[in-house]
Amino acid sequence: MSFTSSLFRPGAKRHVVVEVLTEKLGKWVVLDPTFDTLVLVDGQLASALELHEAVVGGRISAITFERNGSALAPHPKPEIYGHYCRHLFMAMSNAIFDGYSVRLLGRKRISFLHFSRKATYPQLRKQLLLGAGGSGLFLGAVFWAWTFLSLIPD
Fold it and tell me: Which of 74, 83, 117, 119 has a CA between 20 and 30 Å from the CA of residue 53?
């Protein structure tokens, strides 16, 4: 899963974490391999959604870390997550294990859930851009087919 500070690419800050399902707690828990840490919200191991809710709810001080003796530097600060975690994207498939990939078309396309209180996902804009791109591809194919067919002697 991925966090990002903005939906617009220029200047956006991104951070990728993983979640694991813990049977003992019966919930998903964020593991941050970049900082070699577990993330806690209000002193409890947190899921990505709980971390995101704490950030967009302005509760940065509720975020703490459990490093279990890791000496990896730098040590994380809650403010780092305050910058990164404005938007949360979760893959809707077991992409690596089921042969899915990031693509516009096809049977095994990864779909993402987007969570944010600050801004809505630009679904209409995305659909318009995909439609325009698809139309351009179609018109290009028609042009090249017409060109190829016009070169064939009768």
Answer: 74
Measure CA of the first residue to CA of the last residue in the chain; give whole Å. Answer: 57
Sequence spans of domains, the chain: 2-120, 122-154
Q: How many Cβ atoms from other residues are within 10 Å of residue 75's Cβ?
A: 12
Residues 6 or more apart whose Cβ sits within 8 Å of residue 91: 1, 110, 111, 112
Task: Reply yes or no: is the peptide bond before residue 78 cis, omega within 30 of 0.
Answer: no
pLDDT digits (tens, 9 = 90+) for 118-148: 555 555 666 666 677 778 888 888 888 888 8
Q: Tell me if 45 sits within 8 A of 17, measured CB to CB.
A: no
Q: Are 112 and 95 a contacting pair, CB within 8 Å?
A: no
Strands (E), 10-151: 14-16, 18-22, 27-32, 37-41, 44-45, 63-66, 87-91, 112-115
Distance CA 141, CA 146 (A): 8
